[in-house]
C-alpha cells in the first residue's frame, strides 16, 4: 500500500490573525506538532508547538471565544487540584493574541478552593521554520534546536528568520534532549481563593518577507447596522474584524494596503483575490481599492516570460518569498507568478468601479498608463489563436493547469465528467473581458485618452462570438457552457461560473433571465448557497474543491449580480443560504464548504482544508449588505440608484456609515421595501424613495 502525503485538515482548528502573523491551534488552545497547527509569519511556520501543561498533565477544555479582532480565549480546568468536590475549583484562562510580528499569551490560573494550591505550569515549544508549501503538502519536518541567552529567553534562527520567545519569571529548559522541545516552567503557589497571571510572547524578525503589516487603522469605514435579521449584523461584524486582521502591504511600500487572500495557505498578495475583495469593499470607501490597484500596477508585466507567465500589461497572480513547490502535484510556481487569466480584467473593472464610487481623479490619473497597458494585454496577448476569445494554457508543465478562479486541476469538466484539454476558454472570463473593454473605454473617454472606440468595438464583437460559441442545450433549457476546450467544443456542464456573467453586459435581458433560472434550480441552489457545479453533472461531488462545493465569495458575487439585474427572488434565496451558513460557522465564513442538499444535511458540511478567515469570503458580507440596501452610485454621472433586497422578506434595515464620493451616507429600508438615503455629497442628491423597483434619478450638476 502506497503511503499518501495528505494536505492537513484544519476545519476544527481555532485561528487568530494579525497579518502577516497567524496562528492555528486546537479547540482547547493547544498548538500541537502535527498537521497545520502552528504560528505562521508571512509564508513560514515560526512556531510548530505550544502545549500548556499543569503538573505535566493536559487540562480539560471547556469553551473558547473571541477576544477582539486578533485574539482568542480558552477556558480549561485542572480538576485534580483544589477541593475534592464535584464542582471544579481551579481553572485556567488562556488568552492568545496575534501581533503584526508575533504572538502573546496570557495564562490566568484562578482558584476558588478553600485550601492552598501548589502546581507547576509549563509550556512546551517547538520551531521548524517550515515553508507554508511544505506544511500544505503534509510533508514531515524536523524541529530546530533552540538557543538560550537572557533569563526566560529562547531563540531559533534559520533561512534568514530569527524567532525569539520571552517568558518573564519562567525557568527555561533547553539543554540536551530538550534542545528541540524547550520548556518554559513557572512554579505556582496560590493561597485559598488566589490567582496568578503568567505571560510569554513570541517575536519574529523576518527581513526577507515580501509582505508586512501596515500601520494605522483600516482604510474602510465601519458602518453601524441595525436589521430585523440579526444574522446580517453578526456576519458583518465578524467579517470586518477578520478583514482588519488580513490587511497587508508590500515590503518597501507600507502605504499601499491590500488584503491577503487567506489563512493559512495564502496570506500574501493574490491578484484575483485581492482585487475581488477590494471591489466588494467599495461601499465602505475607495482607499483599499486605491492601494490594491497601485501595488499590482507596480508589478504589472513588462515582458514575455513563459516560466513566470508574465506578459506586457498582465497583472500578477501571486507573490511569495521563494518558489512555491508542491512536487507531488508537479507544481513549481516562481516567487512572482503571473499564471492568471482574469486578474488583468479584474484590475480594470476595479479601477472603473472605484471611479463610480467616487475615487478622486488625482488617484486615478497616475493609473491610466497601467489601464492602457492592461487593455493592450487584452488585445494583444489574451487571445493567442486570434479567434476573439480570451484563453489560457500553461506551456511549462510546472504552473497552474487551470488559471481562472477555479484553478484546481480537475475544475473544467464536461457533463459526462471528462476533463477538458487546454487551451481553455472560460465563460466568466469572456464576461470580465467584455466588462473591462466597456469600462476601460468609459475611463479613457472621461480622462481624455484616445482609443475608447476600439474597445467598444472589441466588446461588441465579443458579444457576438460568445453567443455563437457558448450556448448549449441542457436539462433546464439553453445554458452557457462552462468553457470551450482545445478543439473549441463547449464544455457542457452547468456551473456557477455563468453567474459571473450577470452585469458584465455580455448577456441581453432574456439571456440573463435564463441564467437566473438555471442558477435557482435545485441542482444548483439546494445547498447553503450556490453550488460550483450542478448535482446533475457526472463530475459533481459536494466536497470537491471546485466541482460541487459552495464558495462564499462565488455565492456573494452571483447574489449581487442577480440583485442588480432585478432577479429578487433568486437573490433572496442565495442570501438566505449564506446567512444560514454563517450562523453555523459562528459568522466566520470559510473559503468554501460542502454542497450537500439542505434537505439531507441540516447544517453546512465543512470543507476540511478551507482557509478561514479568507478575504473574499469575509468581504462577501459587505457585498450582501450592499445588495440588501440596493445602493448603486455613479458619482461621475451624478446619479444614485436604490433597489433594495431588504423589505418584506429580508426585513427592515438601517445602515449608517456607507461611503459615496468619500462622504458618509445613511440608507434606511423599511419593511415594505421603501428606501431612503441621506448624507450624499454635493452635487449628489437623493433619488426619490424607492419601493422594490429600480429607480435612477439624474442629479444636478
Automatic annotation (TrEMBL):
Cross-referenced InterPro entries: 6-hairpin_glycosidase_sf (IPR008928), 6hp_glycosidase-like_sf (IPR012341), GDE_N_bis (IPR032856), MGH1-like_GH (IPR054491)
| SUPFAM superfamilies named in the record | Six-hairpin glycosidases
Q: Where do the Mannosylglycerate hydrolase MGH1-like glycoside hydrolase domain residues begin and end? A: 339-583
Q: Where is this region: Disordered?
A: 676-701
Q: Where's the Putative glycogen debranching enzyme N-terminal domain? A: 20-200
- Check the record and name the Pfam families matching this protein: GDE_N_bis, MGH1-like_GH
Query: Which regions are flagged for Low complexity bias?
Result: 690-701
Gene3D superfamilies xref list: 1.50.10.10
- From the Swiss-Prot or TrEMBL record, give the protein name: Glycogen debranching N-terminal domain-containing protein
Q: Give the lineage.
A: Bacteria, Bacillati, Actinomycetota, Actinomycetes, Micromonosporales
Amino acid at each position: 500500500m502506497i503511503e499518501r502525503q495528505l494536505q492537513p485538515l484544519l476545519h476544527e482548528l481555532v485561528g487568530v490573525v494579525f497579518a502577516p502573523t497567524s496562528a492555528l491551534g486546537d479547540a482547547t488552545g493547544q498548538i500541537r506538532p502535527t498537521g497545520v497547527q502552528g504560528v505562521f509569519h508571512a509564508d513560514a511556520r515560526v512556531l510548530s508547538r505550544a502545549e500548556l501543561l499543569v503538573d505535566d498533565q493536559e487540562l480539560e477544555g471547556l469553551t473558547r471565544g473571541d477576544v477582539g479582532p486578533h485574539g482568542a480565549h480558552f477556558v480549561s480546568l485542572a480538576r485534580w487540584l483544589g477541593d475534592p468536590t464535584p464542582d471544579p475549583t481551579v481553572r485556567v484562562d488562556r488568552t492568545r493574541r496575534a501581533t503584526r510580528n508575533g504572538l502573546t499569551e496570557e495564562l490566568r490560573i484562578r482558584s476558588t478552593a478553600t485550601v492552598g494550591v501548589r502546581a507547576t505550569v509549563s509550556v512546551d515549544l517547538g520551531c521548524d521554520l517550515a515553508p507554508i508549501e511544505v506544511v500544505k503538502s503534509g510533508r514531515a519536518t524536523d524541529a530546530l534546536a533552540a538557543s538560550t541567552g537572557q533569563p526566560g529567553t529562547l531563540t531559533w534562527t534559520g533561512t534568514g528568520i530569527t524567532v525569539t520567545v520571552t517568558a518573564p519569571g519562567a525557568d527555561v529548559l533547553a539543554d540536551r534532549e530538550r534542545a528541540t522541545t524547550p520548556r518554559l516552567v513557572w512554579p505556582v503557589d496560590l493561597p485559598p481563593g488566589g490567582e496568578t497571571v503568567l505571560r510569554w510572547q513570541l517575536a519574529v524578525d523576518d527581513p526577507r518577507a515580501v509582505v508586512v503589516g501596515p500601520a494605522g487603522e483600516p482604510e474602510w469605514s465601519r458602518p453601524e447596522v441595525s436589521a430585523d435579521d440579526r444574522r446580517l449584523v453578526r456576519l458583518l461584524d465578524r467579517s470586518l474584524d477578520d478583514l482588519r486582521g488580513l490587511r497587508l502591504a508590500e515590503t518597501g511600500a507600507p502605504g499601499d494596503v491590500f488584503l491577503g487572500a487567506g489563512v493559512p495557505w495564502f496570506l500574501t498578495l493574490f491578484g484575483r483575490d485581492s482585487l475581488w475583495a477590494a471591489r466588494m469593499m467599495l461601499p465602505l470607501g475607495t482607499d483599499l481599492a486605491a492601494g490594491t490597484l497601485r501595488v499590482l500596477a507596480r508589478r504589472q508585466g513588462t515582458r514575455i516570460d513563459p516560466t513566470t507567465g508574465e506578459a506586457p500589461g498582465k497583472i500578477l497572480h501571486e507573490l511569495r518569498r521563494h518558489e512555491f513547490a508542491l512536487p507531488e502535484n508537479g507544481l513549481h510556481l516562481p516567487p512572482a507568478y503571473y499564471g492568471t487569466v482574469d486578474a488583468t480584467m479584474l484590475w480594470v473593472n476595479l479601477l472603473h468601479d472605484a471611479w463610480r464610487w467616487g475615487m478622486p481623479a488625482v488617484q486615478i490619473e497616475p493609473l491610466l498608463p497601467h489601464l492602457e497597458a492592461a487593455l493592450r494585454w487584452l488585445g494583444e496577448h489574451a487571445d493567442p489563436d486570434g479567434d476573439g476569445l480570451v484563453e489560457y494554457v500553461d506551456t511549462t508543465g510546472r504552473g497552474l493547469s487551470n488559471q481562472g478562479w477555479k484553478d484546481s486541476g480537475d475544475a473544467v469538466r464536461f457533463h459526462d465528467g471528462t476533463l477538458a484539454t487546454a487551451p481553455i476558454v472560460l465563460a466568466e472570463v469572456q464576461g470580465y473581458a467584455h466588462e473591462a473593454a466597456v469600462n476601460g473605454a468609459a475611463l479613457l473617454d472621461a480622462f481624455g485618452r484616445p482609443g475608447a472606440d476600439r474597445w467598444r468595438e472589441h466588446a461588441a464583437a465579443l458579444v457576438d462570438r460568445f453567443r455563437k460559441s457558448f450556448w448549449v442545450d441542457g436539462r433546464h433549457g439553453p445554458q452557457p457552457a462552462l468553457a470551450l476546450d482545445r478543439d473549441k467544443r463547449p464544455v457542457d456542464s452547468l456551473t456557477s461560473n455563468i453567474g459571473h456573467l450577470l452585469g458584465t453586459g455580455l448577456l441581453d435581458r432574456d439571456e440573463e433571465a435564463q441564467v437566473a433560472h438555471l442558477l435557482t434550480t435545485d441542482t444548483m441552489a439546494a445547498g447553503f448557497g450556490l453550488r460550483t457545479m450542478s448535482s446533475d453533472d457526472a463530475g459533481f461531488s459536494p466536497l470537491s474543491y471546485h466541482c460541487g462545493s459552495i464558495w462564499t465569495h462565488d455565492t456573494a458575487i452571483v447574489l449581487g449580480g442577480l440583485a442588480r439585474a432585478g432577479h429578487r427572488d433568486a437573490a433572496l434565496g442565495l442570501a438566505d443560504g449564506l446567512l444560514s451558513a454563517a450562523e453555523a460557522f459562528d459568522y466566520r465564513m470559510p473559503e468554501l464548504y460542502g454542497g450537500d442538499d439542505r434537505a439531507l444535511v441540516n447544517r453546512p458540511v465543512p470543507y476540511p482544508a478551507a482557509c478561514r478567515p479568507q478575504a473574499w469570503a469575509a468581504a462577501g458580507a459587505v457585498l450582501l449588505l450592499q445588495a440588501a440596501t440596493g445602493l448603486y452610485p455613479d458619482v461621475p454621472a451624478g446619479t444614485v440608484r436604490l433597489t433594495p433586497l431588504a423589505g418584506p422578506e429580508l426585513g427592515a434595515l438601517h445602515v449608517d456609515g456607507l461611503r459615496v464620493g468619500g462622504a458618509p451616507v445613511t440608507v434606511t429600508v423599511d419593511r415594505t421595501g421603501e428606501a431612503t438615503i441621506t448624507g450624499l455629497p454635493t452635487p449628489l442628491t437623493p433619488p426619490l424613495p424607492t419601493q422594490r423597483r429600480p429607480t435612477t434619478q439624474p442629479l444636478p450638476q
